[in-house]
Amino acid sequence: MIELREPIINGTLDAFKWWLKSAKKEKPFLKTPNFSKIRKKMVLVKDKDVPVISVNKDELTYLRNKLLTIDAETISLEKSDIKKYYFTATTHKIFALKKEMKEIEDKIKVLEKSNPEGTKTLMTYKTFCTIIEKYNQKVIKALVEEGASIKLWNNLGYLYILKKDKKDMFGMNNIDWSASNAYKQELIDAGETPKDEKHPEGKNWFQFYEDPHYLRVAWTKKYGTCKVPNNSVYAFYPTKSRSGISNALTKANRINEYLREKYITIKKTA
Asked: In 27-88, which ranges are continuous DSSP H helix?
């Protein structure tokens, strides 16, 4: 399994680059695109099916060299393992290396029967983008429709939908200040007097939230779930595009008002 070990900054293009970097460490024989020749990032788009290719003869060379290295390590460990009749940490290591050698030998036999110049595509940029998009849509569905908590890889913490009581957030009056100020301006434009300290007999312009809850996508780093150094300086901003999670959360809760019962509720403590 190839994991991303460094942060992704600028969307799928950077994610693809980091994936390539990780893949090359595990499989140095891969033929990967040279990004230094691409002057502008916009040149590499989803429609450009840039492939990552594995050539049989290159993989064979890599596997044979790896087999020799493992064999030499096994012989060295066998010589150093004095306790021949006991299972030690060295003995377990030898067994693991011999198992890996057998797997490599089987791969070599298969490749030797094939065309040396034969190639296979490991991944393309277009496929990579599709995988990322489909995965993100599944995550959005699990968070919004099922109220699930999603564990992020590499000890990055959890994502979940947080439900807060607006009375706890904005006070007992639960005033929607954005709507109230807009209505106040409408009264002024219509020549009416809004109610205030100087005009106690004026018209009441306060508007209140109809929805008692405030929903948002939350990232938790507490209780040791996120082990990234200095994680307190990092922030999470959910996507607000048409297909993003913020829009999906709003739409789903307008259609089904009982969805919020699945979300994690945090109440203000005295």
From this structure: 56-80
- Could you identify the residue written with the tokens 């639960």? 174
Q: How far apart are CA 162 and CA 264, in angstroms?
A: 5
Domain boundaries, the chain: 11-131, 141-266
Amino acid (1-letter code) at residue 138: K
Q: What token pair was written down for 118? A: 């034969």
Q: What letter does residue 262 receive in the DSSP assignment?
A: G
User: Encoding tokens for residue 174?
Assistant: 């639960």
265 phi/psi in degrees, rounded to 5: -105, 135
Instruction: Name the residue with tokens 């050698």.
Output: 101
Q: Does residue 178 contact residue 199 with C-beta atoms inside 8 Å? A: no
Cα–Cα distance, 127 to 46 (Å, whole number): 9
Section 234-259 average pLDDT:
85
What gap in Å lies between CA 200 and CA 193, rounded to an integer?
10
pLDDT of residue 39: 46
Q: Are 117 and 57 in contact (CB under 8 A)?
A: yes
> How confident is the model over 145-179, as pLDDT tens digits?
998 888 888 888 889 998 887 666 555 566 778 88
pTM (2 d.p.): 0.61
CA 261 vs CA 161, 210, 246, 264: distances in Å: 11, 17, 18, 8
